[in-house]
């Protein structure tokens, strides 16, 4: 299993909604997050903000906000990224490691039984 790198964001880029009233921030990510990371980010528990409700899709985060709230929106996105990275490591990666360790133990047990069987059959 390759080493997982925490997700990091790039520089936010503002555009406007078609009516020009609200600002849409597009925030690139350094890499495409795994699907489970995206699910955790899009369904945060206990982290809310009135500045924006960001959503991740693929390699970018989008959030609609208004002037005067953009800094708070980006700070909220930063908190969500940090929170999601932590939850992903503690829940998802820990479970993957446990599964891998169980598989390795089972392989070692099978190898040991085969070694014992070969030893028992030695000389026949």
Name the features.
2 helices, alpha+beta, four-stranded antiparallel beta sheet
Q: Which runs of at least 5 residues are low in confidence (pLDDT < 50)?
A: none
Subunit organisation of the chains: single chain
Number of helices: 2
* Cα shape: rod-shaped
The average pLDDT value, as a whole number, equals: 86
> Per DSSP, what share of the residues sits in E-state strands of 2 or more residues?
15-25%
N→C terminal distance = 41 Å
Structural class: alpha+beta
Describe the largest sheet: 4 strands, antiparallel
Q: Order of strands in the sheet with the most strands?
A: 1-2-4-3
- Please give the number of β-strands: 4
Fraction of residues in helix: 40-55%
Task: Give a verbal description of the structure.
β3 (55-57) and β4 (60-65) form a beta hairpin. Helices cover 48% and strands 15% of the residues. The longest helix is centred in the C-terminal third of the chain and has 52 residues, at 70-121. It has helices at 35-42, 70-121, and strands spanning 13-16, 23-28, 55-57, 60-65. It is built from two helices and four strands; from the N terminus they run ββαββα. The chain has a domain at 13-89. With 124 residues, the protein is α+β, with helices and mostly antiparallel strands. The chain has a four-stranded antiparallel beta sheet with strand order 1-2-4-3. It starts with 12 loop residues before the first strand and ends with a helix.
């Amino acid at each position: 299993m390759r080493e997982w790198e925490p997700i990091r964001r790039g520089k936010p880029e503002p555009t406007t909604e078609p009516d020009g009233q609200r600002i849409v921030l597009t925030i690139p990510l350094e890499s495409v997050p795994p699907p489970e990371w995206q699910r955790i980010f899009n369904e945060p528990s206990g982290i809310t903000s009135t500045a924006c409700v960001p959503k991740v899709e693929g390699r970018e985060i989008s959030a609609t906000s208004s002037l005067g709230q953009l800094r708070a929106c980006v700070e909220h996105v930063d908190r969500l990224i940090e929170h999601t990275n932590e939850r992903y490591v503690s829940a998802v990666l820990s479970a993957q490691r446990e599964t891998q360790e169980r598989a390795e133990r089972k392989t070692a047990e099978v190898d040991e039984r085969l070694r014992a069987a070969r030893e028992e059959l030695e000389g026949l």
